[in-house]
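Record format v2
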Amino acid sequence: MSRARGVLLGAWEFVVGDDWRTALGVVAALALTALLAGGGVAAWWVMPPALAVLLAISVWRVAREHAAAAGPGARARAREDRDGEAGARTRDLHV
Amino acid sequence: MSGAELALGASVFIACAVEAVEALTIVLAVGSTRSWSSALWGVGAATLALGAIVAALGPALTALPIDALRVVVGALLSIFGLQWLRKAVLRSAGLKAKHDELEIFRAESQAARAAAARGGGLDAYAFTIALKGVLLEGLEVAFIVLTFGAGQHRVALAGAAAGLAVLLVIAAGFGARAPLARVPENTMKLAVGVMLSSYGMFWGAEGAGASWPGGEVALLAIIPGVLLTALALAWLARRSLVGALAR
């Protein structure tokens, strides 16, 4: 990999992070704001719900992946923990 | 000092303090197990590089026309803020491991002891690890200082707040001679994420041509709104995780 390509890739990862959809959504929301404002329509209301939805989707995707990765084994362990003394184990579940 | 400047200073201060705590853990680990002088040379080199980045990009950013600047800064702050919020929400919901400075310190110290023995002069391992740690953690802060500072044409104020945070963390860390494990990093990251996202959407929309009802007063509604949204998402994510495990 050339050094320039490495620098560009690093910059992309640094700014965009691990969820490019969020970055794309922010740009799209700003573009919609500019479009509405350019047409003389009140556009301040676009960004707050857009950011809330983008954050929710981003969190939901990880939660869904996490639940899928936990699988039936984790659910069984959780049931055992819930019924036994080791209930705290599920509360400390981390990736 | 205006309310906006106070918010700028506080946000940069907290963001910088969090990153400085993380960098300090790495420097303490390699300094105490390998070589303090080499680790400090690494810190110095990284600090110089970060200073050069801020000095070079700060004037370039502030030279942009105000609307273009606010769109660029607004977009970057919103993206960055959402990243911080996402991590804070996931950690709060138990979906991502919380930062454990003591564990990181132990791991870094173990790796430093296991690395090849140093020769005479500069210890390349201690220098490189300290430089990388400070540079990587500091880049995020430099980015926040630049974008947040440029948005209000207050890069110097943002830089001063960042410098003060670094000095305080260094003083606390070297006073305790241990990683600062009791700092509530997740709460601080949540606070920074809220401020970055709030100012990002405010400036971004203004730069794109929108007018907020009440002007800057709108921030008094935006900031609590973003905070409540993040807290609600953390609560929902916790519930969904518990629900998924219980089924």
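Chain B touches chain A through 48 residues (CB under 8 Å).
The radius of gyration of chain B is 20 Å.
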